[in-house]
């Protein structure tokens, strides 16, 4: 795991390819671009022969889609950053254990953060099960996290979550759209995962997104943007007041 990060770029748009090469050369001396490819056939051959550690790839290519490439490597040891305008592929990208997903058009800082995130987590990634990392991973920009619902993992915007409610060994996630997700993890899991993302544990059963607090009634009840009313425990009143002060603009 020492030395430069051997990387391949898979992109069939020449201008996009050159932009990626230039951005990486400007910001990441530790990355060695060992190949640039635009077709499925060439990409599969290059991965087999060159054994890259990191792949940046578009999904829709002229001769098919990138998942055909990944299907050739079911036990892959490389990481993938998807960069594509085709957001409908996001769910499947995560199923392939992508390190992260960036939608076109994107700001340079998004890709820079994604690669920085990979670089800093590089050793840990190769020391742990890929799926566990994927479940726990929050994107560098802090916008999404993965929720285990039934037999699948859903990418959810943190800002869309109004509150989380304990349901035994499960957790109900209430979204601002009105939709509810029954997640296969206890509330404590989300309390830890979202601790630095503006969430606060109100009581034994409720975790709230402070950005969705609409009002506080008589310092006893929090009213959220979706109309939910949650009681404040006595020991949390002072702490909550301090938190609300920090959220004032």
UniProtKB/TrEMBL annotation:
<protein>
    <submittedName>
        <fullName>Response regulator transcription factor</fullName>
    </submittedName>
</protein>
<feature type="modified residue" description="4-aspartylphosphate">
    <location>
        <position position="58"/>
    </location>
</feature>
<dbReference type="InterPro" id="IPR007492">
    <property type="entry name" value="LytTR_DNA-bd_dom"/>
</dbReference>
<dbReference type="Pfam" id="PF04397">
    <property type="entry name" value="LytTR"/>
</dbReference>
<dbReference type="InterPro" id="IPR011006">
    <property type="entry name" value="CheY-like_superfamily"/>
</dbReference>
<dbReference type="GO" id="GO:0000156">
    <property type="term" value="F:phosphorelay response regulator activity"/>
</dbReference>
<dbReference type="InterPro" id="IPR001789">
    <property type="entry name" value="Sig_transdc_resp-reg_receiver"/>
</dbReference>
<feature type="domain" description="HTH LytTR-type">
    <location>
        <begin position="145"/>
        <end position="246"/>
    </location>
</feature>
<dbReference type="GO" id="GO:0003677">
    <property type="term" value="F:DNA binding"/>
</dbReference>
<keyword id="KW-0597">Phosphoprotein</keyword>
<dbReference type="InterPro" id="IPR046947">
    <property type="entry name" value="LytR-like"/>
</dbReference>
<dbReference type="Pfam" id="PF00072">
    <property type="entry name" value="Response_reg"/>
</dbReference>
<feature type="domain" description="Response regulatory">
    <location>
        <begin position="6"/>
        <end position="119"/>
    </location>
</feature>
């Amino acid at each position: 795991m020492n030395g430069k990060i051997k990387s391949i770029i898979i992109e069939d748009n020449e201008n996009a390819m050159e932009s990626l090469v230039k951005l990486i050369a400007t910001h990441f001396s530790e990355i060695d671009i060992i190949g640039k490819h635009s077709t499925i056939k060439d990409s599969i051959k290059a991965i087999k022969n060159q054994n890259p550690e990191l792949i940046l790839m578009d999904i829709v290519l002229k001769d098919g889609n990138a998942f055909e490439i990944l299907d050739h490597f079911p036990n892959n040891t490389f990481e993938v950053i998807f960069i594509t305008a085709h957001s409908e592929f996001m769910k499947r990208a995560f199923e392939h254990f992508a390190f992260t997903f960036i939608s076109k058009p994107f700001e340079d800082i998004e890709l820079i953060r994604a690669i920085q995130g990979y670089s800093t987590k590089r050793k840990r990634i190769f020391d742990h099960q890929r799926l566990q990392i994927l479940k726990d991973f929050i994107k560098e920009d802090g916008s999404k996290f993965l929720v285990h619902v039934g037999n699948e993992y859903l990418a959810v915007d943190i800002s869309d979550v109004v509150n989380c409610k304990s349901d035994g060994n499960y957790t109900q996630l209430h979204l601002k759209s009105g939709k509810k997700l029954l997640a296969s993890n206890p509330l404590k899991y989300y309390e830890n995962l979202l601790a630095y993302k503006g969430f606060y544990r109100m009581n034994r059963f409720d975790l709230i997104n402070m950005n969705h607090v609409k009002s506080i009634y008589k310092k006893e009840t929090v009213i959220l943007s979706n109309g939910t009313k949650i009681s404040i425990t006595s020991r949390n009143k002072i702490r909550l007041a301090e938190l609300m002060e920090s959220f004032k603009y």
